[in-house]
Amino acid sequence: MTRRWVPLAIGAGVVTWVVALALLAVTTRDSQEFGRLQPWILVINAAGVIVLLALLAGRLGELLRERREQVPGSRLRMRSVGMLSILVLVPLLVVFTFSVLFLTRGIDSWFHAEVRQGLSDALGLSRAALDLRMREYLARTVKIAHDLEGRHAGTLFAELDDARRGSEADELAVVSAGGRLEAYSAAALLQGMPPAPPDEILLQVRRGQPYVSLDPAASGGYIIRAAVGMGQESSLQSRRILVAVYPVPQRLADLAAAVQGAYQQYGRLSYLREPLKISFVLTLSLVLLMALLGAVYGAFFFSDRLVQPVQDLIEATRAVAKGDFDTQVPRASTDEVGYLVTSFNDMTRRLARARAEAEASRTEVENERTSLAVILARLSTGVVSLESDLTIRIANHAAGDILGADLSDSAGQPLEKVAQEHELVAQFLAILLPHVEAGQTEWREQVSLRAASGRREIMCACTALPVEGNESGGLVLVFDDITQLLHAQREAAWGEVARRLAHEIKNPLTPIQLSAERVRRRLMGSLDERDAEVLERATHTIVQQVEAMKQMVNAFSDYARAPAVELTSVDVNKLAREAIDLYHAQDARVHFELELEPEGAVIEADRGRVRQVLNNLLTNSLEALEGRPEPAVTVCTRRVPAAGGCFVELVVRDNGPGFHQDLAGQMFDPYVTSKPKGTGLGLAIVRKIVEEHGGRIQADNQAAGGAQVRVWLPVDEASRGATVPRETRKQEPRREHA
Amino acid sequence: MHATSGLHAVLKRTAVLLCGVLLVATALAADERFAIRNAFAEPVGGIWNLNVIIETGLSKPALEALAEGIPLTLLLDVQISGERRFLPDSTIAELQQRWELAFDALSERYVVTNLNSGAQTTYASLGEALEALSRIRNLPLIDGDLLEAGRRYDIGLRATVDIGGLPGAVKLLIFWRDWSRSTDWYTWSIRP
């Protein structure tokens, strides 16, 4: 049964019960009617009791389960049900007690001794009245018997009929002593044989005693039956008997029947007194039980109505406590509880609005933070935010690149701890600490860090963050790697110097050389042998030095010149093989080894310049290996994927003495060399070519000894803007030996 | 000597008393006996008539009810079933005869009414009325043509005396009172 049918069923049950009660009230005035309807009343009430018991058992079980599971509001529901039940139970029991008392006493009051005595007296009075009539009829019967004595059978019937008409008798019959009917006369039309007189009449008359009795008639009312013997008393056993039946006068018969009926009804009620009392009490108990159960069920119902809003409020409060501010409690009434529900709903609405606003603000802040993080990530400037105790709050990617450490996961770590693992960070901290200890929060300084790949020039600025509440503001360090900038500036200056040198020095060199040769030719013949020898030596020296100066000026000119790069598809592996073949042919003493990318190392670059890079690096290595035992040069290529592109890494390493420690960071500067015959422009030109291609170069010493130069060149135009990863993937290259 | 005669007297009186109690108890038990003493059926003119003798001892509640004017009803249930091979016996006929015994306080007579026919007889005493009720003679039972010759028929009789005129609900609620008594089924067989 669906829930919406429950109230309908309950309503129908209540109506039926009320009808049953009304019937009970009506029928208690009439025991016959009560007896007829009582089964239905009992059935209705018993069914109601069973249904209510089942409903109550279900509700009680539900309540106990809720109580056991600590359902909010179950305690209040149990209390309210208990109180309402007690409030109903007490008056109902009082009413029941007094009802039973009044009922039993009321029934007892029907049967006062005076009533029974009065009815007995009335009955006696009726009998007395009828006795008079019976004696009169008996006397009349005696007279008829006397008149009919000795009559012959032939005239007996006629005389009997005359006597009946004269005596108001309904029937007159003459029977023999043996009971045989001899003559019969009746006022009513006889149907069938006349009935034989009862044996008791015959027995009594035979004993010589006249018989008269009042008999109930089958058709209702009473008749008076009289019988007397006919003839002498000496022949009692043989004389005939006259039997007469007289009607009781209607008026007397009605009164007598009324008295008899009342007496019989009284006797019946008297006999049924105890059963009736028990029956009434049982019925009343059943009705009371049903009323009681109905009241208890009503207590559940009203308890539900009372507790449900409170229960809803408790559940809604829990939901709000868990963060569900959309919870709304249905308002069921307009009373104080309803007002409370309205207030609660208003509160949750405001909380929801406030949370939405806070969420919007948080989202906005988050977006701004994300934007800031993106900006910081994209920024080429290193940004590190520190707590006042120098714990890293945030550090962007560029900061890690500049300081040579991965700071992406270093948030929350002390800078000192990170410095223990990274040399550049340690140098950075060493520069930072004096300022912090001196309490300087706003400063700007250019610092130099010594990295394995060379010196790094850093422009660092520090700013204090504003203090918020009890939290200290901390510091923000913003720094740029200006090594490239300084290098570019230096390179530009060197380029200008080279260009001027080439312009200012190269032009006079040819006239000097020509003039020296002309002087030698003109004077050689006119001078004596000794002077000629001096002249020859002097002019030779001039020509030789001019030639040397020309070479140097040409080198400067090459460095300063920056022709447009012509990009073509260049196979670095192929160039490496060609270069090795060339140098191996020149100096077979050196052991060359190739470790080439098996999948190929094709890039978009200027073929001539890349070849120049290879030649310069190999020349450097071969010059460094002069006089070294078992000289060996290794050339490696491999593809290196990077964010946003791909690079080809070219590595040239030898087992020579390596770079001088004093030149660390200056190997690529022009005119810096540790070789007696070097111009100091080889690595500078290599670096320039690499940077013209958007690549990167790094030079350092191997742990096992020997120099190592690594060059990363972008494979295509799209990769030129990508950043070369610091930790590159190791891949087994293809080894070739020469 | 006197002591011996005294003891004899006490014993004699005790024996007399015990005998009296026994007689009274027997009489009371006999009064309350309600059973079918004898019954038989005989064919008369092609009709099987029933003759029954019932011991119509009434219980105390029945006597009290009768004295208070509440009529008693005597029911006689008769069942005739025919024997069948391999099957349960089949019921051939069922009939019920009802009589009512009432006390008329005004005439102080006991009235016996055959509720089936409406015939009414009055008696001066309860004994006479019960005697009349206890002997049922020549009650037509079944037409002989309806019975197969040579087949065995079982006749069952049961008499019930009931305190009539009471509400059924009262009888239901006051179930522990002896409102009704029935005899056991009295059965015998006939073979036409």
Describe the model.
The complex is a heterodimer of chains A (738) and B (192). Helix content of chain A is 57%, strand content 16%. Chain A has helices at residues 5-27, 31-68, 74-110, 113-147, 153-167, 199-206, 250-271, 273-321, 336-378, 397-403, 415-421, 423-437, 483-524, 529-560, 572-586, 607-624, 682-692, and strands at 171-175, 181-186, 211-216, 222-229, 241-247, 382-386, 392-395, 443-451, 454-464, 475-481, 568-571, 591-596, 602-605, 632-642, 645-654, 696-701, 707-714, 734-737. Helices cover 28% and strands 44% of the residues of chain B. Chain B is α+β, with helices and mostly antiparallel strands and 192 residues long. Chain B has two domains: 1-31; 34-190, no CATH class. In chain B, a hairpin with a 2-residue loop joins strand 1 and strand 2 (47-56). Chain A binds chain B through residues 31-32, 34-36, 38-39, 42, 123, 126-127, 130, 198, 200, 213-216, 218, 222, 256, 259-260, 263-265, 267-268, 270-272, 274-276, 278-279, 282, and chain B through 64-65, 67-70, 104-107, 109, 111, 113, 118-124, 128, 165-170, 172-174, 177.
Shape of chain B: elongated
Uncertain regions spanning at least 5 consecutive residues of chain B = 23-31
Low-confidence stretches of chain A: 727-733
Assembly annotation: heterodimer
Total number of beta strands of chain A: 18
How many strand segments of chain B? 10
Tell me what portion of residues of chain B adopts beta-strand conformation: 35-45%
Helix content of chain A: 55-70%
